[in-house]
Design goal:
There is one protein chain. The chain is an alpha/beta fold. It folds into 2 domains: 28-192, Reverse transcriptase/Diguanylate cyclase domain (Alpha-Beta Plaits, 2-Layer Sandwich); 197-472, EAL domain (TIM Barrel, Alpha-Beta Barrel), CATH 3.20.20. 47% of the residues lie in helices and 19% in strands. It is built from 18 helices and 16 strands. It has helices spanning 2-30, 41-52, 70-77, 79-96, 120-135, 163-180, 196-210, 252-257, 261-281, 302-313, 326-331, 333-345, 362-367, 377-380, 387-402, 415-423, 440-456, 467-472; strands spanning 60-67, 102-107, 110-116, 138-140, 143-145, 149-156, 184-186, 214-223, 229-240, 244-246, 287-291, 320-325, 349-355, 372-375, 406-410, 428-430. The strands form 3 sheets. The chain has an 8-stranded mixed barrel, surrounded by 5 helices. A hairpin with a 3-residue loop joins strand 9 and strand 10 (244-246). The longest helix is centred in the first third of the chain and has 29 residues, at 2-30. It is elongated, with a radius of gyration of 28 Å. The N and C termini lie far apart (90 Å). 38% of the residues are buried.
Length: 490
Amino acid sequence: MFAAARDVTEQLQTQKDRAARMADLREQDAATDPLTGLPNRQALYTRGPALLMGEHGQRRALLLLDLDKFKEVNDSLGHDAGDRLLVELATRLANEVRAGDLLARLGGDEFAVLLQNAGHEDAVAAAVKLRAALAERFVLNGVALHSAASIGIALFPAAGLDLSALLRKADIAMYKAKTSGDGIHVYGSADDSDGAARLQTEDELRTAMTCDQLVLHYQPKIDLGNGSVHSVEALVRWDHPTRGLLYPESFLALVEDSGLMRTLTQRVLQMALDQVAAWRALGQHLTVAVNLSASSLVDADLPDEIAAMLAARGVPPHAVQLEITEEFLMADRDRARNILTLLRQNGIQISVDDFGTGYSSLSYLRELPVDELKLDRSFVFPMADDARAAALVASTIDLAHSLGLRMVAEGVENRVAYAELKRLGCDQAQGYFISRPIPAAELDLWLADQRILDQSTDFPQPIPSGAFASQQAGRAVGADLQDPQSGRPA
């Protein structure tokens, strides 16, 4: 009797356990995307709130990804190919997210990533990595494809206190990223407002890029060994019809937010190469340096586009130098290395700008195909009064030379810094002590004046800060010793 009761009890327990396992499997299936195996929308809504309400005070971010031109893949290669593409992209995304972050496929070609312990910079860096991973080449039905995604970012708690609010704000940001063409956008309160003034300025910017309102000024880089000038840096200005000449810090942020950085970069490259061609026609063989933004490092078309620009103007590749900040290089080394290698293979020089302000490492300097380092002005300025700063500059110059790289010092604003950099063996210098950025026509006169100075002295001396420009304006020579941009030229 007792044995029979025990058997019945065990059988009932076995049935309950089986039912519980089946329920768990059904729940797991209901929360799993059947195509990619990723958590689905239901899983995001089930697990997301608990992740948001985790450790108090910890920052979080929600990234919403939407594939660009996915419909074209389905239409041209078929839905089976589209499904294979989604599986491949899901795998790539899964390889990039950290343990503890939640990656989900919401449906169609839309994915979400809930990042733990991530603020603004962390979220943007994660978005850059995700876009780079998706952009890597793969083959479907014998066709080579490069995928791209638009990513909207909503920060917790600034953009919303619950998952539904964050999803709405991330969707707004994603739409802005897609329509602007910039690829990544962080939601801000202005995104909910009309932003009439901002929209007007954005429209004016678009007009500026097509109606010759953008101009370039050029700052020479002087050879500290003999005082000669063989290269210049091109710096963009906006000759606004009503506000006058605008420096980059007054419009570059809007360029980024409006998705116009790629257009601006192309326009600056075109103008700079036009000027190089004009100089070469006159027998002036100058190398021009142009700054690239972070988005350029994930633009697989950039090397071919620059090669086409050079060929159209008959300009040799070695006449162009591209400057990329150390911070941007470190954001995604692999992707940066691929793009820079293609550029170097085409004969274009690469410079690491703002060197010393990022997360430097000897391995990264050894691996990346670069030609020169530009020491940030924050190291150069205190050299005269700070022995430790001078020692850092000396060791950095030695490091560059040991790696076979040129060292350029920017922000040279007085004779003491100029002389000390020369004594330490720095290769080139640029700054207001030598010349402020000036239009091409003024630079031609500056160079002619420099050659006269070289011929009239035993040792070439730099022209004091803004000498020609100041004389033309009736101001005292050397009056402009501070850069009005208060930061890196762009």
